[in-house]
Amino acid sequence: MYKLRHLCFALLSLGFAASTHADEKRFISDELITYIHSGPGNQYRIVGTLNAGEEVALLSVSEGNNYGQIRDTKGRTAWIPLDQLSDQPSLRAKVPALEQQVQTLTQQLNTIDAGWNQRTAEMQKKVTESDGNIQSLRDENQSLKDQLVVAKKKVDAVAVQLDDKQRAIIMQWFLYGGGVAGVGLVLGLLIPHLIPRRKKDNRWMN
Protein backbone atom coordinates (compact mmCIF):
# COMPACT_ATOMS: atom_id res chain seq x y z
CA MET A 1 0.00 0.00 0.00
CA TYR A 2 2.81 2.40 0.86
CA LYS A 3 4.54 1.67 -2.45
CA LEU A 4 1.30 2.32 -4.35
CA ARG A 5 0.92 5.72 -2.71
CA HIS A 6 4.51 6.59 -3.46
CA LEU A 7 4.04 5.59 -7.10
CA CYS A 8 0.84 7.70 -7.40
CA PHE A 9 2.63 10.68 -5.87
CA ALA A 10 5.50 10.30 -8.31
CA LEU A 11 3.10 10.12 -11.27
CA LEU A 12 1.22 13.22 -10.04
CA SER A 13 4.51 15.09 -9.67
CA LEU A 14 5.52 14.02 -13.16
CA GLY A 15 2.16 15.14 -14.54
CA PHE A 16 2.41 18.51 -12.76
CA ALA A 17 5.93 19.05 -14.06
CA ALA A 18 4.80 18.10 -17.56
CA SER A 19 1.89 20.59 -17.47
CA THR A 20 4.13 23.47 -16.41
CA HIS A 21 6.51 22.95 -19.34
CA ALA A 22 4.06 22.28 -22.18
CA ASP A 23 4.82 23.15 -25.80
CA GLU A 24 7.93 25.28 -25.27
CA LYS A 25 10.09 25.84 -28.32
CA ARG A 26 13.54 24.26 -28.11
CA PHE A 27 16.41 23.49 -30.49
CA ILE A 28 18.71 20.50 -30.71
CA SER A 29 22.22 21.45 -29.55
CA ASP A 30 25.24 21.49 -31.81
CA GLU A 31 25.92 17.76 -31.56
CA LEU A 32 25.87 16.18 -35.00
CA ILE A 33 23.22 13.56 -34.12
CA THR A 34 21.07 13.23 -31.00
CA TYR A 35 19.28 10.01 -30.15
CA ILE A 36 15.69 10.14 -28.96
CA HIS A 37 14.15 7.51 -26.71
CA SER A 38 10.72 6.13 -26.13
CA GLY A 39 10.85 7.09 -22.45
CA PRO A 40 12.61 9.47 -20.04
CA GLY A 41 15.93 7.62 -19.76
CA ASN A 42 18.68 5.82 -21.57
CA GLN A 43 17.15 2.48 -20.58
CA TYR A 44 14.28 3.12 -22.99
CA ARG A 45 14.72 2.07 -26.57
CA ILE A 46 16.01 4.47 -29.20
CA VAL A 47 13.23 5.45 -31.58
CA GLY A 48 15.18 7.79 -33.87
CA THR A 49 17.68 10.57 -34.22
CA LEU A 50 17.60 14.34 -34.63
CA ASN A 51 20.14 16.54 -36.35
CA ALA A 52 21.75 19.56 -34.76
CA GLY A 53 19.75 22.74 -35.14
CA GLU A 54 16.37 21.05 -35.66
CA GLU A 55 13.42 22.76 -34.00
CA VAL A 56 11.26 20.74 -31.62
CA ALA A 57 8.39 21.45 -29.23
CA LEU A 58 8.99 20.68 -25.55
CA LEU A 59 5.85 18.97 -24.26
CA SER A 60 6.84 17.99 -20.71
CA VAL A 61 9.81 17.57 -18.37
CA SER A 62 10.81 14.67 -16.15
CA GLU A 63 12.68 16.43 -13.38
CA GLY A 64 13.92 13.21 -11.78
CA ASN A 65 15.59 11.89 -14.93
CA ASN A 66 16.43 15.31 -16.43
CA TYR A 67 14.67 14.33 -19.65
CA GLY A 68 12.19 16.26 -21.74
CA GLN A 69 9.38 14.98 -23.92
CA ILE A 70 9.51 16.60 -27.35
CA ARG A 71 7.66 16.57 -30.65
CA ASP A 72 9.72 17.12 -33.81
CA THR A 73 8.72 18.58 -37.16
CA LYS A 74 7.77 15.11 -38.41
CA GLY A 75 5.17 14.75 -35.64
CA ARG A 76 7.15 12.17 -33.67
CA THR A 77 6.90 12.27 -29.87
CA ALA A 78 9.94 11.07 -27.93
CA TRP A 79 12.22 11.79 -24.99
CA ILE A 80 15.63 13.49 -25.04
CA PRO A 81 18.12 14.65 -22.37
CA LEU A 82 17.47 18.24 -21.36
CA ASP A 83 21.15 19.15 -21.69
CA GLN A 84 20.82 18.45 -25.43
CA LEU A 85 18.11 21.08 -25.80
CA SER A 86 18.62 24.81 -26.07
CA ASP A 87 16.22 27.74 -26.01
CA GLN A 88 18.31 29.45 -28.70
CA PRO A 89 18.92 28.27 -32.26
CA SER A 90 22.25 26.49 -32.70
CA LEU A 91 25.14 28.07 -34.56
CA ARG A 92 24.49 25.75 -37.47
CA ALA A 93 20.92 27.02 -37.65
CA LYS A 94 22.02 30.62 -37.18
CA VAL A 95 24.61 30.60 -39.98
CA PRO A 96 22.12 30.70 -42.91
CA ALA A 97 20.14 33.44 -41.20
CA LEU A 98 23.33 35.39 -40.49
CA GLU A 99 24.48 34.91 -44.07
CA GLN A 100 21.12 36.19 -45.27
CA GLN A 101 21.39 39.18 -42.94
CA VAL A 102 24.90 39.90 -44.20
CA GLN A 103 23.71 39.67 -47.79
CA THR A 104 20.74 41.94 -47.06
CA LEU A 105 22.93 44.48 -45.26
CA THR A 106 25.47 44.35 -48.10
CA GLN A 107 22.74 45.04 -50.64
CA GLN A 108 21.43 47.89 -48.49
CA LEU A 109 24.92 49.35 -48.17
CA ASN A 110 25.45 49.05 -51.92
CA THR A 111 22.10 50.76 -52.49
CA ILE A 112 22.96 53.51 -50.01
CA ASP A 113 26.40 53.90 -51.57
CA ALA A 114 24.95 54.08 -55.07
CA GLY A 115 22.31 56.55 -53.92
CA TRP A 116 24.94 58.66 -52.15
CA ASN A 117 27.16 58.65 -55.24
CA GLN A 118 24.20 59.69 -57.37
CA ARG A 119 23.27 62.49 -54.97
CA THR A 120 26.89 63.61 -54.84
CA ALA A 121 27.08 63.64 -58.64
CA GLU A 122 23.82 65.61 -58.85
CA MET A 123 25.09 68.12 -56.27
CA GLN A 124 28.38 68.50 -58.14
CA LYS A 125 26.43 69.02 -61.36
CA LYS A 126 24.28 71.67 -59.71
CA VAL A 127 27.37 73.37 -58.28
CA THR A 128 28.98 73.35 -61.73
CA GLU A 129 25.82 74.74 -63.29
CA SER A 130 25.62 77.39 -60.58
CA ASP A 131 29.25 78.35 -61.17
CA GLY A 132 28.52 78.60 -64.89
CA ASN A 133 25.45 80.75 -64.24
CA ILE A 134 27.41 82.98 -61.87
CA GLN A 135 30.17 83.41 -64.44
CA SER A 136 27.60 84.13 -67.13
CA LEU A 137 25.97 86.77 -64.92
CA ARG A 138 29.38 88.28 -64.19
CA ASP A 139 30.18 88.44 -67.90
CA GLU A 140 26.79 89.97 -68.63
CA ASN A 141 27.26 92.50 -65.83
CA GLN A 142 30.68 93.46 -67.18
CA SER A 143 29.22 93.79 -70.68
CA LEU A 144 26.48 96.07 -69.36
CA LYS A 145 29.09 98.16 -67.54
CA ASP A 146 31.09 98.49 -70.75
CA GLN A 147 27.96 99.45 -72.66
CA LEU A 148 27.13 102.02 -69.97
CA VAL A 149 30.60 103.55 -70.27
CA VAL A 150 30.24 103.74 -74.06
CA ALA A 151 26.75 105.24 -73.72
CA LYS A 152 28.05 107.89 -71.29
CA LYS A 153 30.82 108.78 -73.72
CA LYS A 154 28.28 109.08 -76.53
CA VAL A 155 26.04 111.24 -74.37
CA ASP A 156 28.99 113.47 -73.50
CA ALA A 157 29.94 113.71 -77.19
CA VAL A 158 26.35 114.56 -78.15
CA ALA A 159 26.24 117.16 -75.37
CA VAL A 160 29.44 118.75 -76.69
CA GLN A 161 28.05 118.74 -80.24
CA LEU A 162 24.82 120.29 -79.00
CA ASP A 163 26.72 123.06 -77.21
CA ASP A 164 28.72 123.72 -80.37
CA LYS A 165 25.54 123.88 -82.47
CA GLN A 166 23.91 126.17 -79.97
CA ARG A 167 26.93 128.44 -80.06
CA ALA A 168 26.94 128.35 -83.86
CA ILE A 169 23.21 129.19 -83.99
CA ILE A 170 23.65 132.04 -81.53
CA MET A 171 26.58 133.32 -83.53
CA GLN A 172 24.57 133.04 -86.76
CA TRP A 173 21.68 134.93 -85.23
CA PHE A 174 24.05 137.50 -83.83
CA LEU A 175 25.69 137.97 -87.20
CA TYR A 176 22.34 138.03 -88.95
CA GLY A 177 20.97 140.59 -86.51
CA GLY A 178 24.13 142.69 -86.77
CA GLY A 179 23.96 142.54 -90.56
CA VAL A 180 20.32 143.59 -90.59
CA ALA A 181 21.06 146.42 -88.20
CA GLY A 182 24.05 147.53 -90.28
CA VAL A 183 22.04 147.48 -93.51
CA GLY A 184 19.26 149.45 -91.85
CA LEU A 185 21.72 152.02 -90.58
CA VAL A 186 23.30 152.40 -94.00
CA LEU A 187 19.91 152.72 -95.68
CA GLY A 188 18.85 155.24 -93.09
CA LEU A 189 21.86 157.33 -93.88
CA LEU A 190 21.65 157.00 -97.67
CA ILE A 191 17.97 157.30 -98.34
CA PRO A 192 17.70 160.98 -97.33
CA HIS A 193 20.43 161.85 -99.73
CA LEU A 194 19.06 159.77 -102.54
CA ILE A 195 15.52 161.14 -102.43
CA PRO A 196 15.33 164.94 -103.19
CA ARG A 197 13.39 167.04 -100.75
CA ARG A 198 10.30 168.79 -102.02
CA LYS A 199 10.44 172.52 -101.95
CA LYS A 200 8.16 174.01 -99.49
CA ASP A 201 5.20 175.82 -101.01
CA ASN A 202 5.32 179.28 -99.43
CA ARG A 203 2.64 180.68 -101.60
CA TRP A 204 0.14 180.50 -98.99
CA MET A 205 2.48 182.42 -96.78
CA ASN A 206 2.46 185.56 -98.96
TrEMBL record:
Q: Cross-referenced InterPro entries, in alphabetical order?
A: SH3-like_bac-type, SH3_dom_pro, tRNA-bd_arm
Which residues does UniProt assign to the signal peptide?
1-22
Molecular function as annotated in GO:
nucleotide binding
What membrane topology is annotated for this entry?
Answer: Single-pass membrane protein
What stretches pass through the bilayer? 173-195
NCBIfam families to which the protein is assigned, alphabetical: SH3_and_anchor (TIGR04211)
Q: What is this protein called?
A: SH3 domain-containing protein
**Species name:** Acerihabitans arboris
